[in-house]
Design a protein that fits this description.
With 347 residues, the protein is mostly beta strands. The chain contains three helices and 16 strands.
């Protein structure tokens, strides 16, 4: 997480106003100890501190209770070896806006810790060792949260996102999630980007993403999905304001899908043959490359009727072994199929 130029202006000319270690820069509202080879956090901090930046050290334990909490706005603790954060125990940070704990060794967070950060807007817990989200409660103020590259196995249906009404970006990629449950994201109704790529997801329960009516981008790339139920994606992106050329993206590349059924792709709009006055809106784009698609009459009919929603027809390949050379979904044609003649519209 990069510091804005304005934050560096917090450094006072007289650093001696606060007694700090040789590897730190201190003022009445700032303590910076970047790449100082510290094995322990500073013993104390100024009463009116607004920014703490102790990135790139070797700290293993961090006690929040010794921090003056009323004015603190930015806390950057990434690239350490922090395994444990002391329980807040009613200690709150009412002005904290950014918290970066990425690239540490955290396995859990104290229950209720984030809820006491009522102004928190950005949270980065990527590249840790978190196994569960059950103790984490996203505060209503949060707009960005990253849990990338942990060991998370499931998404809690209750607690984790109960009041995440302003969350816009959520990154859960590179974890060990297997199932996305019904209504898992219903409370995060303002979510605009959700990344679930590079997990081991093989089960999408019905209505798993129905609450994401404001979402523009959903990544399920690099998972083990082999089937999609009819209402899994119903209402996805339905409330996103449409602009010329703008499309909602659903990335399903590199999964185990062998076919596409019209009962789930049809939720994005009418088929080509049902469009009025030859105008077919394309509000959603699905990416299917690197799936083991078995091209047959059924898939050909779905392509002909809903092909405008598939953004990589020219790259998604059929795996049937009866072709002399690889055939893409766009070029596959079986004249023996009984489907009515339809013109494929690719926008």
């Amino acid at each position: 997480m990069k510091l804005s130029g304005a934050l560096f202006g917090l450094v006072a000319e007289n650093a001696a106003a606060f007694n700090c270690t040789e590897s730190c820069t201190c003022s009445e509202d700032l303590v910076q100890c970047i790449s100082g080879e510290l094995t322990e956090a500073p013993e104390s901090f100024p009463d009116q501190i607004q920014l703490i930046d102790i990135r790139n050290n070797m700290i293993e334990y961090f006690a929040l209770k010794k921090l003056p909490s009323l004015d603190l706005k930015y806390m950057y603790l990434s690239n350490n070896s922090i395994e444990q954060i002391e329980d807040l125990n009613r200690h709150s940070f009412p002005e904290l806006e950014e918290l970066d704990l990425s690239n540490n060794k955290l396995k859990w967070l104290p229950m209720g810790m984030l809820r006491r950060m009522s102004m928190l807007q950005r949270l980065d817990l990527s590249f840790n060792s978190l196994v569960s989200l059950s103790t984490i409660r996203i505060p209503s103020s949060l707009s960005f949260a990253s849990f990338q590259a942990n060991r998370i196995e499931s998404i809690p249906k209750r607690g984790f996102l109960d009041v995440a009404h302003n969350l816009a970006i959520l990154d859960l990629s590179l974890n060990k999630i297997e199932t996305v449950r019904t209504g898992a994201f219903n409370n995060a109704h303002n979510l605009q980007k959700l990344d679930l790529s590079s997990n081991i997801i093989d089960n999408l329960q019905n209505h798993a993403f129905s609450g994401l009516s404001n979402c523009r981008e959903l990544s399920l790339r690099d998972n083990l999905i082999n089937d999609i139920m009819p209402n899994v994606l119903k209402n996805f992106g339905s409330d996103v304001p449409q602009i010329p050329g703008g499309r909602n993206i659903i990335d399903l590349r590199n999964n185990e899908l062998f076919t596409i059924l019209d009962d789930w792709i049809s939720v994005f709009g009418p088929s080509t043959d049902e469009c009025n006055d030859s105008f077919c809106p394309k509000t959603t784009e699905i990416l299917l490359q690197s799936n083991p698609l078995f091209c047959d009459c059924g898939l050909q009919e779905v392509r002909d009727r809903y092909g405008r929603f598939i953004g990589d027809l020219e790259y998604a390949k059929c795996v049937n072994n009866n072709f002399d050379e690889p055939v893409t979904l766009a070029k596959f044609q079986d004249d023996s199929c009984c489907a009515p003649e339809l013109t494929l519209l690719i926008n």
